Amino acid sequence: MGFFVISVTKQQEPDAAYSKAMDAALELKRNFVKIKEKHMHILYRHYDYKPITNINLKCGMHLGQVLFGYWHSPLRSQVTAIGDDVNFCSRLEGFADNDQIIISKELNNALRKITNNTFRTRKIKIPEDKKLKTYEHVRYVYELIDKR
Description:
The chain is α/β, with parallel strands linked by helices.
């Protein structure tokens, strides 16, 4: 499971950042399946163990602003991102089905503006019973399918 919020600084070229993030998500999806299959095979073959639950990738991606930094206390240290756009991205990840990459309308629109856009997406209507908590006004999201 995971989610990405793409935040571009003024020094970066937005088109390049969007493309790199999409490429990374698609590569993560491809590699996740391979790694999962390899480890499941090891569990079955060497340990005669079949897990009760299945591990799957779910990914949400959005374009927005984040507060990103290193958080440290005597009990815990971590790199974290916070903000409304991070929360929205987390909701997208929660909406995703297994092995699916869901992107926001804003990110999909940004991809459409990229010169030589090579990413295929599919529009998905959010059913009434699966509305995104706190973001009930969002009616559609997009699935990142692949690269042409």
